[in-house]
């Protein structure tokens, strides 16, 4: 349905489609308090809400329509939750697979960077590959020299802390710069944390890029001259990392080899998402990502891990109660008066005794007061 609305002297047709059972509350706000009314209207946004204040859709001055209802994907790798991702039902699975895989691999990059930050904080930048693992005497005998030691000096001066492994030069930042790196690392890890799944926060590629930018900014603050080209942190930031032969290489999934599975079905790239889940745009599904050729992933368990823990606790408690009952062998209470089932019966005469007594009274003649019949 199309209606004409006039605000600020401008008449604009706006389209909306919504059930008549809902009462609509239209609100408009303007950007900039000193702008003229006509100019402000060009920047206004009209929002359609239900009675609870939940936004249903927005109508812009150019009569465009955008919905806020999206399909929510709970992405997992195996049985481990990774992140939440929102999309639409009509998205091609080729595009969806690329988006999910890009976010998954970018989160792994942030994790690898955060794993290197503690070493950078404690022992400074990495030594050249030909000097790593050598003792000071061997470096002197071989006449090796770190050309980047004098260039890559942390802000505020270094504090020497020898690396026992011999991987870094030992010129660590001072305490103030260490706090900068630690805080930056914690903020970046919080953005892509798996706890966001419990909180219901969706992760986008912009979120992961923000985490990478924070890490990059923290390094630039502490090391204004940059890191050596052979440092793994710099190589990760420049997408030049070499993961061959490492455990991290097994976790990375190339975009061309990525597959999405839902309900024990492989989601073919030539189709759309609505071909599998229908056209309901308020759906939340669990999607598993893995490499091509690894077969179907394991099905989702019938009960959650928390429910299984509660069931095991209840079973253990019940077993302990039964065990305690089996250990109790004292049955002396069975010989007590209060446990005798025949006690009440012995206290009262039965119906047969009443009947016999009444017959004797009827057959026996009455006696006189002196005892004669």
UniProtKB/TrEMBL annotation:
Protein name as it appears in the record: Cilia- and flagella-associated protein 298
Biased composition range(s): Polar residues: 350-362
GO biological process: regulation of cilium movement
InterPro entries: CFAP298 (IPR021298)
UniProt region (Disordered), positions on chain: 328-373
Family classification: Belongs to the CFAP298 family.
Listed transmembrane segments: none
A Pfam family the protein falls into: CFAP298
Compositional bias per record (Basic and acidic residues), positions renumbered to this chain: 328-343
